[in-house]
């Protein structure tokens, strides 16, 4: 990302973006709630297809609109988008209409043949999800076999000569000690590492207490990000960490409704991919005027396009860099929107979390498409964080990241 | 940062898309998948005028840039050249 300002005005881009743009820069479009996996932290609670999902024709109409609005590219996700029978048709339609596609996948459909096809297009980028640098750590969160599936997809892309695809990692308590290993995997496949923040959204809310990084791991992550700078992508995920010191590369702004938004599989438009809840629902692409009208006139979006109210954070010396953190993270952990982030590195969020309502009182996602018959009954029986007090914290040891854990089988 | 010769002809890279915004414009390069922000409408006019102008200097003059401001725009175009957003045009 480059920023060009020949004029002498001291205006920062982030200050301009607070008032929103004519069209999103970064639009996430979840094509389906269907998924072959049941990741315990899925932010869209995906699993089963929704019968109301947009048809091929409706999806193409959305692409036409994105072309008119000059949305340069969409981040397609799900669910697992590639399981939609018309997935490749929609990708071709988008790229034929000057809408670039970056899609997130667990790799299930990235065969050698598909990899070769993807390599041939300038307008398609691929992002493979991997939440552990080893099968043990990854599969505990993403399910048995998912590590091998992801690695096979990476190998196929590498063999086809697709350089610079993305490996997308959700940073958790269990994998922060593997950052160098993730980087080594990315280097091995000539891919680029992308690290994002675990949000307490969707099923992520159920496991957030056990998976979100510990305070000292946040410091470790921040230092690692500072060290690796622009060679590692973050999707502007970690701006709440900038209160540790200097700002990280990126806009460092909550872009919800300003520069980003989400279109979900049934056409609902939300302020951001981490906020699938009616509180953040702006409209639906099927309504008259379509997506453009929602983007330009939704009452919610217009409200979000104002400088953030610091609330309880106003007097904090770091408010200007962290802006109070992530709106969705606050909302789904039951904290006030105009207060500190639950993972506030100054520790203000932790204090509030201690006094928050019991689980039952927390906001629930609008819709749950989780598989009904899978390995992930609720509450999710993840035991990764059951740490024995007589062992050092995982982040401090360079050995097996599961050292100290006794996963219950 | 490279410096481009003001007396040569330039153009937007064919894989670059330009989206005007109230504050200036967004540029996206489909080949490099990089985004640039122009925080200035005048710079946008220069960039859009490159294709039709015989030289960069002429494109700047057409956008109303005087000698005093020219060095700043010259530098900005150098940055755009570095990221392949603009490329030299050979007649």
TrEMBL record, chain A:
UniProt keyword Ligase present:
no
Which SMART domains is this protein grouped with?
Answer: Elp3 (SM00729)
Locate the region Disordered. Answer: 355-387
Q: Where does the chain cross the membrane?
A: none
The UniProt record lists the EC number as 1.3.98.7, 4.1.99.26
GO MF annotations for this entry?
4 iron, 4 sulfur cluster binding; catalytic activity; metal ion binding
Necessary cofactors: [4Fe-4S] cluster
Hey, what's the signal peptide range on this chain?
none
Q: Any keyword ATP-binding?
A: no
- Radical SAM core domain: residues covered: 21-231
Reactions that this protein is recorded to catalyse: [mycofactocin precursor peptide]-C-terminal glycyl-N-{[2-(4-hydroxyphenyl)ethenyl]-3-methylbutanamide} + AH2 + S-adenosyl-L-methionine = [mycofactocin precursor peptide]-C-terminal glycyl-N-{5-[(4-hydroxyphenyl)methyl]-4,4-dimethyl-2-oxopyrrolidin-3-yl}acetamide + 5'-deoxyadenosine + L-methionine + A + H(+); [mycofactocin precursor peptide]-C-terminal glycyl-L-valyl-L-tyrosine + S-adenosyl-L-methionine = [mycofactocin precursor peptide]-C-terminal glycyl-N-{[2-(4-hydroxyphenyl)ethenyl]-3-methylbutanamide} + 5'-deoxyadenosine + L-methionine + CO2
Q: Which keywords accompany this UniProt record?
A: 4Fe-4S, Iron, Iron-sulfur, Lyase, Metal-binding, S-adenosyl-L-methionine
Identify the PANTHER family for this entry.
Answer: PQQA PEPTIDE CYCLASE (PTHR11228:SF7), RADICAL SAM DOMAIN PROTEIN (PTHR11228)
The identity of this protein, by name, is: Mycofactocin maturase MftC
UniProtKB/TrEMBL annotation, chain B:
Q: Which InterPro entries match?
A: MftB (IPR023850)
- Domain of life here? Bacteria
The protein depicted here goes by the name Mycofactocin biosynthesis chaperone MftB
Source organism (scientific name)? Lacisediminihabitans profunda
Q: Which gene encodes it?
A: mftB
């Amino acid at each position: 990302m480059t920023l060009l300002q020949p004029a002498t005005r001291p205006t920062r881009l982030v200050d301009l973006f607070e008032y929103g743009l004519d069209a999103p820069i970064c639009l996430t479009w979840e094509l389906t709630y269907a998924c072959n996996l049941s990741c315990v932290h899925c932010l869209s609670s995906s699993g089963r297809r929704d019968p109301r999902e947009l048809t091929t024709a409706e999806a193409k109409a959305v692409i036409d609109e994105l072309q008119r609005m000059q949305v340069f590219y969409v981040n397609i996700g799900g669910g697992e988008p590639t399981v939609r029978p018309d997935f490749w048709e929609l990708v071709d339609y988008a790229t034929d209409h000057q809408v670039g596609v970056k899609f997130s996948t667990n790799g299930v459909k990235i065969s050698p043949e598909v990899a070769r096809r993807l390599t041939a297009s300038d307008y398609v980028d691929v992002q493979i999800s991997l939440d552990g640098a080893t099968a043990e750590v990854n599969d505990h969160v993403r399910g048995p076999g998912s590590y091998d599936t992801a690695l096979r997809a990476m190998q196929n892309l590498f063999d086809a000569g697709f350089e610079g695809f993305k490996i997308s990692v959700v940073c958790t308590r269990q994998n922060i000690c593997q950052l160098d290993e993730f980087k080594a995997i990315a280097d091995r496949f000539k891919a680029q590492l992308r690290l994002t923040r675990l949000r307490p959204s969707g099923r992520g809310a159920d496991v957030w207490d056990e998976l979100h990084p510990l305070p000292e791991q946040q410091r470790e992550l921040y230092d690692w990000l500072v060290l690796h700078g622009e060679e590692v992508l973050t999707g502007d995920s970690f701006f709440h960490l900038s209160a540790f010191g200097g700002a990280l590369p990126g806009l460092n702004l909550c872009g919800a409704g300003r520069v980003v938004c989400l279109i979900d599989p049934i056409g609902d438009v939300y302020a951001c991919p981490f906020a699938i809840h009616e509180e953040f629902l702006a409209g639906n692409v099927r309504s008259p005027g379509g997506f453009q009208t929602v983007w330009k006139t939704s009452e919610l979006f217009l409200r979000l396009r104002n400088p953030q109210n610091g609330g309880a954070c106003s007097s904090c010396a770091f408010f200007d860099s962290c802006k109070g953190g992530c709106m969705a993270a606050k909302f789904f952990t039951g904290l006030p929107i105009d207060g500190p982030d639950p993972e506030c590195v100054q520790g203000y969020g932790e204090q509030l979390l201690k006094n928050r309502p019991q689980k039952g009182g927390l906001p629930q996602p609008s819709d749950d498409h989780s598989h009904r018959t899978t390995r992930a009954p609720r509450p999710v029986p993840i035991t990764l964080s059951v740490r024995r007090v007589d062992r050092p914290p995982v982040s401090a040891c360079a050995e097996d990241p599961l050292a100290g854990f006794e996963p219950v089988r | 940062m490279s410096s481009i010769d003001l007396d040569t002809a330039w153009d937007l890279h064919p894989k670059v898309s330009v989206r005007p915004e109230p504050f200036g414009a967004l540029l996206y390069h489909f080949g490099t998948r990089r985004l640039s922000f122009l925080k200035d409408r005048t710079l946008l006019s220069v960039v859009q005028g490159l294709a039709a102008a015989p030289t960069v200097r002429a494109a700047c003059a057409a956008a109303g840039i005087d000698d005093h401001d020219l060095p700043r725009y010259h530098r900005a175009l150098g940055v755009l050249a570095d990221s392949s957003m603009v490329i030299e045009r050979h007649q």
